[in-house]
Design brief:
Helices cover 31% and strands 30% of the residues. It contains seven helices and ten strands. The strands form three sheets. Strands 3-4-5-6 form a four-stranded antiparallel sheet. The protein has a four-stranded mixed sheet with strand order 7-8-10-9. α3 runs parallel beside α4.
């Protein structure tokens, strides 16, 4: 009997009669696992027009946020004539723009102010049980970054895209206590609890 046995189901031949590994048309397994760790959220779908010589070109603009709820978050924008294609573009762009932010005890280490054009978002740390006090765009950014307790306030424009970017810029400006201790050449305890009066004297 020949060593090769024809597989009747798919018409392929294998030496031991078992079906060989199916070639994947998608990305490698490592890439798929890396992509699946991020949660996706669409915060805006808007129809936009571009005036050209022959008239107007209609398309859709999508703003997407991705994050793993463990300190990694990114934002992307995609435009296309069809909504599904625009969503796919936005998600891919967001995954390319993923950054790491500082999250401590399910909140942010210190107060900060994020700016983007005329939008300003104030971010303040909060105690356990407070929850996320924020509007929809800011909530998507901080929630997917892994923050569970935070106080926010919009101090400028109400544009969805600018508010999301301002919140992301504010998170990127955060610094961990270890970084402040290293920059100032002091102990971590001093950074968190401050300098005692006896030590200051």
């Amino acid at each position: 009997m020949s060593e090769e046995i024809k597989n009747e189901r798919n018409g392929r031949s294998s030496r031991d009669g078992r079906r060989g590994p199916r070639p994947s048309r998608n990305a490698p397994v490592e890439k798929q696992v890396e992509d699946n760790e991020f949660e996706e959220r669409i915060i805006e779908i808007r129809r936009v027009t571009k005036v050209v010589a022959g008239g107007k070109n209609l398309s859709f603009r999508v703003v997407a946020i991705v994050g793993n709820r463990e300190g990694k978050v990114g934002m992307g924008i995609g435009s296309a004539r069809e909504v599904p294609i625009a969503i796919r573009k936005a998600v891919l762009e967001a995954k390319k723009n993923v950054v790491e932010v500082s999250v401590r005890n399910e909140t942010i280490p210190h107060e900060t102010l994020g700016r983007q054009d005329s939008a300003k978002i104030m971010l303040k740390p909060a105690g356990p049980g407070t929850g996320i006090i924020a509007n929809s765009p800011v909530r998507a950014v901080v929630e997917l970054a892994g923050v569970k307790n935070i106080l926010t306030k919009s101090l400028g424009s109400c544009n969805t895209l600018n508010m999301a970017r301002a919140a992301l810029n504010g998170l990127m400006s955060l610094r961990a206590p270890q970084e402040f201790a290293k920059l100032r050449d002091i102990s971590l305890k001093t950074v968190i609890h401050g300098i005692d009066e006896e030590d200051g004297q």
